[in-house]
Design goal:
Jelly Rolls, 5-stranded antiparallel β-sheet, 236 residues
Length: 236
Amino acid sequence: MYLFLMMLVLSLSFTSCIDNEVVEPRATLVKETDFNQGTDGWMAVFAEYPYEDSVFYELASGIKTLPPPLDQTKKGFMLSGNNHSDALQMFVTKQLSGLDPQTSYSVKTEVELASMYPEASVGIGGSPGKAVHLVSKFATSGYTLKKGEGRYDNVELILNKDDSVPASSLEMELDDVSIPSDEYVYQLINRSKDSAPMVVKSDQQGKLWAVIGTWSGFEGISTLYYTKIKIILKKI
């Protein structure tokens, strides 16, 4: 009987220790998408073009087979447009979840994409490689697409900033989309950038919006295929 009571006490003590154990939230969170498997919740967004002129700007997007000479069994998220405005923006965007609520994070963005535009290429307004800039943006409260009032006023993508929250948005330039070649042939390139020491804050539900893509100074057609996006969030 005494042995039984001792075992019961030990069992209750062990259970109490488990129930009261403090589990530390993860300091690093990784969000990774391979677009060969589909959109994974990412969607295309275009800006800096007149709202009624999407056909004239030849805007197109979607999961497509990679162009030759790349692996034809693989797919990517294709974005394409004709930059008549000398300012066209082509993005993929997604709301990330699973973060700690109202917590500051530094963000590292890693992007793999297929491009065909040489470093030394030239074009109207700028190089189709060097003048097409890859960026990543993050915002606690997402973004707004502001439609211009006039027929020729451009659509604007505006990050929703909160003046009471200093880290409510974050923007980084990752580089351009040029390839180390003299030929216009598609190849995979990689770009990355870490925001540290700059940070962005998650919302009350532990969510954060990501916007990744290009703004262009090249006045012509750009067609890019995003194959992988990896976002590494480190809690500060």
